[in-house]
Amino acid sequence: MDRRTVLPLLAATLTLGHWAAPALAEYPERPIEMIVPWGAGGGTDAVGRIFGQILQEELGKPVNVVNRTGGSGVVGHSAIAKAKPDGYTIGVMTIEIDMMHWQGLTDLTYKDFDILALVNADPGGIMVSADAPWKDAAALRDTIKADPAGTVKASGTGQGGIWHLNLLGWLMSEGIPVEAVPFVPSQGAAAGLTDMVAGGVQMVPSSLAEGRSLIDATRVRALASMSDERQAMFPDVPTLKEATGSDWKLSVWRAIAAPKDMPPEAREKLTAAIEKAYNSESYQNFMKERGFGLRWAASEEATALVAADDASLGEVMKKAGLAK
Amino acid sequence: MSVLAQSFAMVFDPQVLMVMVLSGAFGLFVGAIPGLTATMATALLVPITFFMEPIAAIASIVTASAMAIFSGDIPGALLRIPGTPASAAYVDDAYRMTRDGRGNEALGALLVFSVIGGVFGTIVLILASPILAEIALKFSSFEYFWLVLLGLSAAIFVSPGSVPRGLVALVIGLVAACVGMDNPTAEPRFTFGNVDLLGGISFIPAMIGLFALAEVLRYLVRGHKTGAPLRPSTKGLLKSQLPVIRRYPKQMLRGNVTGTLIGALPGAGADIAAWISYAMSKRFSREPEKFGKGHVEGLVEAGASNNAAVSGAWIPALVFGIPGDSITAIVIGVLYIKGMNPGPTIFINQAELINALFIVFLLANLLMIPLGWLAIRAATTILAVPQKILMPIITLFCMVGAFAITNSVFGIILMLCFGIIGFLMEENDIPIAPAILGLVLGPLLEQHFITSMIKADGHLMAFFDRPIAAGLGIFTILVWCAPLIRRAILRRKEAVT
What we know:
Chain A has twelve helices and eleven strands. Chain A is an alpha/beta fold. Chain B contains 24 helices and no strands. Chain B: The chain crosses the membrane at residues 16-36, 48-70, 106-132, 144-160, 197-221, 256-278, 313-337, 353-373, 393-424, 436-456, 468-485.
C-alpha cells in the first residue's frame, strides 16, 4: 500500500473508532454532575442530594452534587443550560426559571432546557402569627380590604421572589390593589416567619411546610393552602378556594433538567432511572418526613406545567410592575 | 435516672462511637482544606446519615461540624489562609505567632479554647434552651440592625493602625459588598451584564486573596526579608495552655458568654460573635497595642466565642426549628427525617433522645482534643517545606479553595483580584481585617435597615420603639461616644484641680 491509500484508511479507522466509541460504551461510563442552583443546606440542595444519592445507585456511577449559587438562581440555571448535552451534566431546576427572564436578568427560559421530570411540588399558603386577630383567610382579606394600606405587611422571600408573587397573585384574584400589602424582603421563609413571630410583619405567604415547626409549636397559624386539595400533612388547613373563594393557585416545584439535545439513549436511560428513583422507598420516605410535597410529572407533563406557570407568573409580574 | 441511663447506653454504643471518630476525622480533614467549610462537610454527610440510626446520624453531624470549625483555624495560623470569616478575626495574631516561632502556642490556644467554648455553649444549651429561644424570637430587623452596626463598629477597635486607615479599609469592604443582586431591592448593581457578578463578591475567595495571596505577593516582592514561618513543635502543645487559662480567665468567660448569646440569635452567628469578642478583648485589654501583632489574648476570647456560638445556634433550632446558622439549617432537616421533630415539646416527649444528643455534644468536644492534636501534628509538617517551594503550594491552595466555593473559574479570578488589592492595602499600611468585616456585614446592615424602614413606613424613630432595639441602640451610641465622654470628664477634672 502506498501512502495515498494508507492515510485515508487510517483516517477512516480513526473516525470510525471515534464515532463507534460512545455506541459501544454503555451510558453512563463516568460520573455525572448534578448542578443545584441554590446553596448547600437549603431545601433544593437537600432534594438534589438525596435524589443524586438514589440516582447513583440506579445508574451505577457516582452522581456529584455541585452548588452553583448566586443571582437568584441565574448562575446555576445558566450552568445547566450551557453544559455539554452529553448526559453527564444534569441539574435541579426551580420555579425561578419562570421568573428571571421576566425580570430581565437573563434571556434564559424553560425552553432552553430538556425537562426530564418534575419530582416535588409544595403549595403556597397563608400564615399569620398565633396571637394575630385573624382566625381565617376571609377575615384577613376583609381587614386588608377595609383598613388603610400597610396595616398588614408581608414577608418570606426576597423582593419579587416567588412568595412575593404568591401574595400579589392572591391580592389580584380578590380584586385588592397590590399596594394594600407592602412586602418586606427577607432572606428566605424561615427569616420571614421569625420576623412575623417577633412582631415585625403580619403575614407570610410561603409554603406551609416551611412553617411546620412553628405551626406545631402553636406560634404560627396556617389559614389557607393555595392548592386544589388540602395537604396531607395539614388536613385542618382549608384550601384557598374553601377559605375565600379565590381561584389563585401556586406551587413551587423542583424538576430534574438537562441541556437540550441529549443523545437519545442517554436520555432514555436517565429518565428511566429518575422515575425509579422517584418511586424508591428512600425518596418517598425522605420527602414525607421532611414535609416536602410529593408530585410526579414525566417530561411532557412537566414541561406543560412549567410553561403554564411561566405564563401566569409573567402576567402577575407585568401587572405588578416587576417585569421589565 | 433511667432515662439518663438509656441515653448513655444509646451514645456509648460501639457503632455510634466509631461513627463519631470517623466523622471527626472527616470533619478535621474537610475543615483544614481552605475553601471547604463546615457547612460543606455537613451537607456532604446528609445522604450518608440517611442510612444510619437517629443517634448515629446526629452524632456524625455534630462531631464533623465541630471539628471542621476548629480545623478551619489551622491553615489560618500556618499559612494565613483563614477558613471562615469567623476565624479571620484573629488570623493575623495566629499567623504572626507562627512566624515568631510560637506556632504551638497559637494552635494550642485555638484548640483548647475551641473545646472550652464548645463545652460552655453545650452546657447553656442543656440548661437554658427554652428561655434563650424565647428571647431570640423577640429579635426582628430593628434589633439585628443595631447588632450588625455594633459588629461594624468593631472594625474601628480591631484596626491595628490609625482610625482613618481602618475606615478606609472598612469602606473598601462595604463597596465590594454592594456588587450583585442579592440586596433588598433585588436590583443588579455593578454587574456590568456579567452573570457571575450577579451573585456578588463571594467573601471566602475574597478573604483568601486578601490574606493569603497578598502574603505570597509580598514574599515575591520583598524576598526573604519577610521571615519564614517556623515549623511549630507539638511538644507541650496542651500543657502550655494552662498558664494561658490562668492568665486570661475573664477573657475566656466573656468569650464563652458572648458567643453563646449571639449564636442563639438566628440572624447573627459565629462570624459576628468572633468579631465582637475580638474587639471587646482589645477594648478591655491592658495591652491593646499588642493586638494584631501576635498576641494570644484575642485568640482566647474570640476562639472560645465562635465555638460557643456554634453550640448556641442549636438553641433556636431545637426549640422552634429555626436555623441559627447554615449548619443547623441542614440539621433541622435531618432531625425531621429521624423523627426528632424540633419544638418546645422535644425536651419532654423525646427526653432520652435529647439527652443522648447533649451527651454527643460533650463527647464530640472532648474528642476534639486528641483528634485536633493529631491534625495539628499532621498539618504542621507543611512548614518543613522550604519557603521557595511552600509559596507556590500556598498559591495552589488558594486557587483550589477559591474554586471550591463558586465551583467555577470566577472564584479564582476574584481571589487573584483581591490578592492584589490586599497586597496594595498592606503596602500602604491599610489593615485588612476591617475590609473583611465590611464585606461580611455590609449586606446584612443594608438588609436590616431597608426592611426596618419598610415596616416603619420610613419613620427613623422606630429603631428605638421596641424595648430590646432601644437598649441596643443606646448601647451602640454610647460605645461610639465613649471616647468623647471620657475626654470631657478628664478635661473637667483638670479644670477643677
